[in-house]
Design a protein that fits this description.
Layout lengths: L4 E5 L4 H12 L4 E5 L2 H5 L6 E5 L5 H15 L2 E6 L14 H29 L2 E6 L12 H21 L4 E8 L13 H13 L6 H12 L9 E4 L7
Parallel strand pairs: 1-2, 1-4, 2-3, 4-5, 5-6, 6-7
Helix pairs in contact: 1-7, 3-4, 4-5
């Protein structure tokens, strides 16, 4: 392959799907990971391996990466996009939902990093792009646990960036505002979902997954000696 392998988690819809389409069009071979393999395979992208993987299973990630590297060569970029958004008040929300979010949003991200980072350090090259949120920079009503996971994404990304800077490995945070994805459907409260939709309508609509894919492409395609540490992007009319 003339270009290096990119791994994308949560690639079956939304930001992950849009990013897969974007980077495939740019000529990158891909390993797409998600629980819904049929939707990834339906994209019918060239030089792409699709595997049904839960990011909370580090052994499954490692097996899929090993298979893809056999076919396409070493991973040059990992895009940790898989995530859950389960909104609710701290005294009302089922604690199991908090655990699910931390397992996917934080441990899932760390699992992917654990699998690819040693190889990147040894090769003195590589990029990890973690999809966080504006909710990783400020708080929102009903978002306490979700914000906690995304603040963690910001902190972990910056911490590891400092650790591997001398190894010429880049760590990048992408922090979107409200995006038109399936993320809100994970929330069980109809009242919270209705309020969220009203908020989106009030700003005249939100940004599209393609907008995030474009930002990811921009950051990744910079020369290896340039690290775009963080990109924050949202609809112009989104105030918080």
């Amino acid at each position: 392959m003339s270009k290096s392998l990119v791994v994308i988690t949560g690639a079956s819809s939304g930001i992950g799907e849009a990013t897969a389409r974007k980077l495939s069009a740019e000529g990158y071979p891909l390993l797409l990971l998600a629980r819904r393999v049929e939707q990834m395979e339906a994209l019918n992208l060239p030089n792409t391996l699709c595997r049904k993987v839960d990011v909370t299973d580090v052994k499954a990630i490692a097996a899929a990466v090993a298979e893809a590297e056999q076919k396409f060569g070493p991973v040059d970029c990992l895009i940790n996009n898989a995530g859950m958004m389960l909104l609710g008040l701290a005294d009302e929300q089922d604690p199991a939902e908090w655990q699910t979010m931390f397992n996917v949003n934080v441990m899932g991200m760390l699992n992917g990093i654990h699998v690819v980072l040693a190889g990147m350090k040894a090769r003195k090259s590589g990029t990890v792009i973690n999809i966080s949120s504006i909710a990783g920079r400020k708080t929102f009503p009903n978002h306490a646990a979700y914000c906690g996971t995304k603040f963690a994404v910001h902190a972990i990304t910056e911490n590891i960036r400092e650790e591997v800077a001398d190894d010429n490995v880049r760590f990048i945070t992408i922090a979107p505002g409200a995006v038109e994805t399936e993320l809100l459907t994970h929330t069980s409260s109809d009242a919270i979902k209705a309020g969220y939709e009203e908020w989106k309508d009030g700003m005249g609509g939100v940004i599209a997954p393609q907008d995030i894919a474009n930002a990811i492409s921009y950051a990744y395609n910079q020369p290896q000696n340039l690290c775009v540490r963080e990109i924050v992007l949202a609809a112009t009319r989104q105030q918080p």
